[in-house]
């Protein structure tokens, strides 16, 4: 859906998501070569860290 919005001409510098979408595979996909958009997301109260 994010890729479709960007292809439709919507300009975005970053993607703001809730805890439901803040996980490593999703972040890697959004920041990777095919989408290339920064992600800001809330984290659950766990000890995992994503870099």
Which regions have little confidence, pLDDT < 50, spanning 5+ residues? none
- Order of strands, main sheet, comes to 1-2
The radius of gyration over CA amounts to 12 Å
Total beta strands: 2
Note the main attributes of this structure.
51 residues, alpha+beta, elongated, 16% strand, 2 strands, two-stranded parallel sheet
Give a written overview of the molecule.
With 51 residues, the protein is of the alpha+beta class. The chain has one domain (2-41). The chain contains 2 helices and 2 strands, in the order αβαβ. Strands 1-2 form a two-stranded parallel ribbon. Strand 1 (14-17), helix 2 and strand 2 (38-41) form a beta-alpha-beta unit. The longest helix is centred in the middle third of the chain and has 8 residues, at 24-31. The radius of gyration is 12 Å and the shape is elongated. The termini are far apart. The model has no long low-confidence stretch (mean pLDDT 85).
Quick description:
27% of the residues lie in helices and 16% in strands.
Task: Please describe the topology of this protein.
Elements: H1 2-7, E1 14-17, H2 24-31, E2 38-41
Parallel strand pairs: 1-2
């Amino acid at each position: 859906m994010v890729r479709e919005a960007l292809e439709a001409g919507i300009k975005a510098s970053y993607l703001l998501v809730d805890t439901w979408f803040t996980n490593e595979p999703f972040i890697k996909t959004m920041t990777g070569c095919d989408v290339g958009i920064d992600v800001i997301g809330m984290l659950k109260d766990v000890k995992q860290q994503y870099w």
